[in-house]
C-alpha cells in the first residue's frame, strides 16, 4: 500500500486545478514536478525531464518515493497558483497547446513558461512586436529540396514577404489576413514546420516551411497569429476576442489519399491527395504539391451540399466510394477502406452543417468576382 507521503500527494490531486495537467490540461495527471509544485501528464512530464533538474524535478505520483518537503512544496503551490504565476501574461494570439498537439508546440510552450518565463516578462515575447524577419527553409516550387529564404512579416502593411535575393524584389507578397497556417501537418517530413496556404490569382498556393530550431518556427507561427489578430481587431471592432482568436489559424481538418473521377461518369478514378482546409476541399497530385489541381468550396447543407455513401446508378463504385453533392457538380470519391471513407464523410459533413460566417461569404464573393462567375459559388477552380 502507499505510505503516508504518497497518500498526501494523492489527497492534493483532489484540490481544484490539480485534476488536470498543469501544461496541457489533460485529465488525470500521474506525474508531478516537486520543485515547481505542479501535477503533470506523462507527455509533459517527459518534456520537463528534458529541461534538466535545475528547472524541473519530476516524479511519478504512485511509483516514486516522496519526501516530506516535496509533498509540502506541492501543497504550497499547486496547479492554480503556478498558472497564475507562469501564465500571467500569455498573449491572446499565442496558441496554447493541448495534449494531442504537435510535440514542438508543447515543448516550446513549456520552455516559454518555465525556462524563458516569457509570460511574466512580455519584453521576451518576440512574436507580439508586429514585425519579424529572418531566414526560414522553404521547399522549392517544382523541386523537393529546401532553400534558405529571407522572410519578412509586417503588421503595419498586413504582409508576409519572402525573398530569393534580398537585394531584389520579394518573390511573393502575401496578405497576412488572408493566409492560413497549418502547424506541422503529418505529411511534412520536417519536424519543426508549417504549411502556409494563400490565394493567388483565384487559386490556392501552398508554401512548405521548416527551421531546425523549434523556438524559431513556433515564434514565427505565433507572430503570424498575432498579426492576424491585430488586423482582425481593426476590421471587426465589435467582435469578441474569443471569436477572433478562433479565426487565426486552423490546422487542416483532415488529409489523405482518395480516388476521384472526372466530371463524366465514365471517367477513370485517379489517386489524389485531398486536404480539407476549413471550407475548402482541395485535391493535389502529391501531398506536397505547390498548387491544388482543383478546389471545392463547401457551402451549407441548406444550400444543397451533402455527402452520401456510394455512387448513383451508372457511376462506377470503386469499393469504398462516396458522393459529395454540390449545387454545381456531384463528385465521386473513393477511399482506401471503409473507416477511411467514414472519416472523410464525417469530416466533410461536419463542415457542411456549419452556417457560413461573414468571413466565408467574403472569401466566396471575392473568388466569384475574380473568376467572373456569377451563377455558382461552389467551385472556384478546377483544373
Ligand atoms: Zn500535459
UniProtKB/TrEMBL annotation:
Any one Gene Ontology molecular-function term assigned to this protein's record: phosphatidylinositol bisphosphate binding
Protein name from the UniProt record: Gtpase-activating protein
PROSITE patterns: ARFGAP, PH_DOMAIN
One GO CC annotation: plasma membrane
Superkingdom: Eukaryota
Protein source organism: Rhodnius prolixus
Gene3D superfamilies, per database record: Arf GTPase activating protein, Pleckstrin-homology domain (PH domain)/Phosphotyrosine-binding domain (PTB)
One family name in Pfam for this protein: PH
Main location per the UniProt record: cytoplasm
Subcellular compartments: Cytoplasm
Keyword terms of this UniProt record: Cytoplasm, GTPase activation, Metal-binding, Repeat, Zinc, Zinc-finger
Amino acid at each position: 500500500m502507499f505510505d503516508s507521503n504518497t497518500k498526501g500527494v494523492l489527497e492534493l490531486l483532489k484540490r481544484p486545478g490539480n485534476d488536470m495537467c498543469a501544461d496541457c490540461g489533460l485529465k488525470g495527471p500521474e506525474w508531478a514536478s516537486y520543485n515547481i509544485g505542479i501535477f503533470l501528464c506523462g507527455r509533459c512530464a517527459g518534456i520537463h525531464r528534458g529541461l534538466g533538474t535545475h528547472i524541473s524535478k519530476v516524479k511519478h505520483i504512485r511509483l516514486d518515493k516522496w519526501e516530506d518537503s516535496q509533498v509540502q512544496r506541492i501543497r504550497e503551490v499547486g496547479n492554480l497558483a503556478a498558472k497564475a504565476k507562469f501564465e500571467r501574461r500569455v498573449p491572446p494570439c499565442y496558441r496554447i497547446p493541448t495534449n494531442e498537439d504537435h510535440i514542438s508546440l508543447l515543448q516550446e510552450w513549456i520552455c516559454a513558461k518555465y525556462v524563458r518565463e516569457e509570460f511574466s516578462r512580455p519584453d521576451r515575447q518576440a512574436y507580439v512586436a508586429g514585425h519579424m524577419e529572418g531566414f526560414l527553409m522553404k521547399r522549392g516550387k517544382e523541386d523537393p529540396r529546401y532553400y534558405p529564404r529571407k522572410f519578412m512579416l509586417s503588421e503595419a502593411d498586413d504582409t508576409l514577404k519572402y525573398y530569393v535575393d534580398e537585394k531584389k524584389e520579394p518573390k511573393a507578397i502575401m496578405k497576412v489576413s488572408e493566409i492560413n497556417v497549418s502547424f506541422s501537418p503529418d505529411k511534412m517530413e520536417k519536424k519543426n514546420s508549417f504549411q502556409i496556404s494563400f490565394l493567388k490569382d483565384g487559386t490556392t498556393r501552398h508554401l512548405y516551411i521548416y527551421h531546425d530550431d523549434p523556438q524559431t518556427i513556433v515564434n514565427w507561427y505565433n507572430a503570424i497569429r498575432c498579426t492576424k489578430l491585430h488586423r482582425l481587431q481593426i476590421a471587426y471592432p465589435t467582435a469578441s476576442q474569443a471569436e477572433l482568436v478562433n479565426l487565426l489559424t486552423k490546422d487542416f481538418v483532415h488529409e489523405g489519399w482518395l480516388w476521384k473521377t472526372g466530371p463524366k461518369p465514365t471517367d477513370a478514378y485517379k489517386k489524389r491527395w485531398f486536404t480539407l482546409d476549413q471550407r475548402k476541399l482541395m485535391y493535389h497530385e502529391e501531398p506536397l504539391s505547390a498548387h491544388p489541381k482543383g478546389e471545392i468550396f463547401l457551402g451549407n447543407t441548406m444550400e444543397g451540399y451533402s455527402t452520401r455513401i456510394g455512387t448513383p446508378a451508372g457511376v462506377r463504385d470503386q469499393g469504398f466510394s462516396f458522393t459529395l453533392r454540390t449545387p454545381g457538380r456531384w463528385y465521386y470519391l473513393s477511399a482506401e477502406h471503409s473507416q477511411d471513407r467514414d472519416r472523410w464523410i464525417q469530416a466533410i459533413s461536419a463542415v457542411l452543417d456549419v452556417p457560413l460566417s461573414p468571413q466565408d461569404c467574403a472569401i466566396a464573393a471575392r473568388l466569384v468576382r475574380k473568376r467572373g462567375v456569377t451563377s455558382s459559388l461552389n467551385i472556384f477552380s478546377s483544373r
